[in-house]
Automatic annotation (TrEMBL):
The lineage of its organism: Bacteria, Pseudomonadati, Bacteroidota, Cytophagia, Cytophagales. Its main location: membrane. Belongs to the peptidase M50B family. It is a multi-pass membrane protein. Residues 55-241 form the Peptidase M50 domain. Keywords: Hydrolase, Membrane, Protease, Transit peptide, Transmembrane, Transmembrane helix. Its cofactor is Zn(2+). This is Peptidase M50. InterPro entries: EGY1-like (IPR044838), Peptidase_M50 (IPR008915). It comes from Spirosoma montaniterrae. It is found in: Membrane. The chain crosses the membrane at residues 12-32, 44-65, 85-104, 116-139, 205-224, 244-261, 281-298, 305-322, 328-346, 362-381. It holds the Pfam family Peptidase_M50. GO terms for biological process: proteolysis.
Length: 383
C-alpha cells in the first residue's frame, strides 16, 4: 500500500467516523434522549440514528464546502495543502455536536499577501452560501407547531402556550436555546411561517435549523479578524502588515474584555463566610492567570502582558460596578484562551505586499459583513 493510499484512507476514515458521530449527536439533540442507557430514560435506537442524518448531512456538507473552498483555491494558487482532516468526537451525554470541525494543513510557505487573502476568503464564503440554502430550507419546511409534543409529550397539558410554563422551576443549565444573529433573525421574521417557529429553547430539536445556526456560529468564529483565522488572513491582506500589528491585538483585547465582562463583580466578594470569600477569591485568581496566559503572546515583555491583563480586569470590575446588568458571554473565554495562547493573534509576515485590487478589496469587506451577519453576542442561551 502506497503512502498516498494510506493518506486517502486516513482522510476518508476520519470523515466516515465524523459522519457517524455527528449523526449520533444530531439524533440526541433531535429527540432529547441518549444512545447510552440511563435509568428512567428510553434510549435511542436505529430509527433515531437514521433520523440523525437530517442534521449530519447538511452540517457536514457546509463544513466540507468550507474546507474545500480553501483547498481548491490553494491548489489554484499552487500552494500545497492537505485534504481536510475531520475531527470526530462523541461525548455520549447529549452535549456535543459530534465533531470539533475540520482543517487543512498548508505545506508551503506563503510569501504573498494576495495568496493569503484568496485562500482565507474562499472557505467562509463558500460555506456561508450553502448555509443560506440550509437555513432557507429549514425555515420554509417547518413542521406544524404540535411537532414539539412528539419530543416533549409532557407539554401537551399546556398546549401551544407551553413556553409560559415549561421552563419554570427547572435546574440550572437544563434549557439550551439558540441565540440570535442578524441573519438568523431575518429568516425567523421574514422567511418562516411565524406560527410554526418554535420557542428558542426548542430549536435544538429541529435538525436543519440547528445545522444552519451552527454553520453561522462557526463561520463567525472563523471570520474573527485576528491572527491566523480566516478573518485574520482577510484583514491582514486588506490593511497590510504594519496596521494589522496594531489592530489585531486591540481587537483581541476587546474580545477578551467582552467575553469576561460580568464573570466577576465587586459585589461577588461580599460573602458572609471566610470559606466562601476565599473560594471566590481563588476562582478570581485563576481567571486572572488565564487572561495572563491568553495575553502572553501580545508582547515578549512580561510586565507589559501583566499590565494589559490587570487593566482589562480592573476595567471589567469598574464597568460591572457601574452597570451590574451588563455582561458579556463567558462561553467565549475558552476561545479567547485558544486564540491567544495557541493560535496567536499576529499574522505571519509575507515578503510580497502587493495591493489587492478593487475586486478583492470589495470581496474582503463583504466577508467582514458576513461576519457581522453571522455573529451573535450570546450565541447559546442556557438557563
Amino acid at each position: 500500500m502506497t503512502s498516498r493510499t494510506k493518506t486517502y484512507l486516513l482522510h476518508g476514515g476520519l470523515f466516515l467516523i465524523t459522519l457517524i458521530t455527528t449523526t449520533m449527536a444530531g439524533a440526541e439533540w433531535m429527540f432529547g434522549r441518549l444512545f447510552i442507557p440511563l435509568e428512567g430514560m428510553k434510549t435511542l435506537g436505529w430509527n433515531e440514528f437514521l433520523a440523525g442524518f437530517q442534521f449530519s448531512i447538511p452540517f457536514l456538507s457546509i463544513l466540507t464546502v468550507h474546507e474545500f473552498g480553501h483547498y481548491i483555491v490553494a491548489r489554484a494558487n499552487r500552494v500545497r495543502v492537505t485534504l481536510p482532516f475531520y475531527i470526530p468526537i462523541w461525548l455520549g451525554i447529549g452535549q456535543g455536536i459530534g465533531t470539533l470541525g475540520a482543517f487543512i494543513r498548508i505545506q508551503d510557505y506563503i510569501n504573498s499577501r494576495r495568496k493569503y487573502f484568496d485562500i482565507g476568503v474562499a472557505g467562509p464564503l463558500a460555506g456561508f452560501a450553502l448555509a443560506l440554502v440550509v437555513l432557507w430550507y429549514g425555515f420554509t419546511h417547518l413542521p406544524p407547531p404540535e411537532y414539539i409534543f412528539t419530543i416533549h409529550p409532557e407539554y401537551q397539558k399546556w398546549g401551544l402556550a407551553y413556553g409560559q410554563f415549561a421552563y419554570e422551576n427547572q435546574p440550572p443549565g437544563q434549557n439550551i436555546g439558540l441565540g440570535d444573529t442578524l441573519l438568523f433573525s431575518f429568516f425567523k421574521t421574514y422567511v418562516a411561517d411565524p406560527m410554526r417557529v418554535p420557542h428558542p429553547y426548542e430549536m435544538v430539536h429541529y435538525p436543519y435549523l440547528l445545522a444552519g445556526y451552527l454553520a453561522l456560529f462557526f463561520t463567525a468564529l472563523n471570520l474573527i479578524p485576528i491572527g491566523q483565522l480566516d478573518g485574520g488572513h482577510i484583514l491582514y491582506a486588506l490593511i497590510g502588515r504594519e496596521r494589522f500589528r496594531w489592530v489585531a491585538p486591540a481587537l483581541f483585547i476587546l474580545f477578551a474584555f467582552y467575553a469576561g465582562l460580568g464573570s466577576f463583580r465587586p459585589t461577588d466578594f461580599a460573602i458572609a463566610t471566610d470559606e466562601g470569600f476565599y473560594e471566590k477569591l481563588g476562582y478570581f485568581g485563576l481567571y486572572i492567570f488565564m487572561l495572563y496566559l491568553a495575553f502572553s503572546r501580545i508582547s515578549e515583555n512580561r510586565l507589559t502582558v501583566l499590565l494589559i491583563t490587570l487593566s482589562v480586569v480592573v476595567a471589567q470590575l469598574a464597568l460591572s460596578w457601574w452597570q451590574p446588568a451588563w455582561e458579556g458571554y463567558s462561553g467565549f473565554l475558552v476561545f479567547v484562551f485558544v486564540l491567544g495562547r495557541l493560535l496567536g493573534i499576529y499574522h505571519p509576515e509575507t515578503e510580497l505586499q502587493e495591493p489587492l485590487g478593487t475586486k478583492r478589496t470589495v470581496l474582503g469587506w463583504l466577508a467582514l459583513l458576513v461576519f457581522i451577519l453571522c455573529f451573535s453576542p450570546r450565541p447559546f442561551l442556557i438557563s
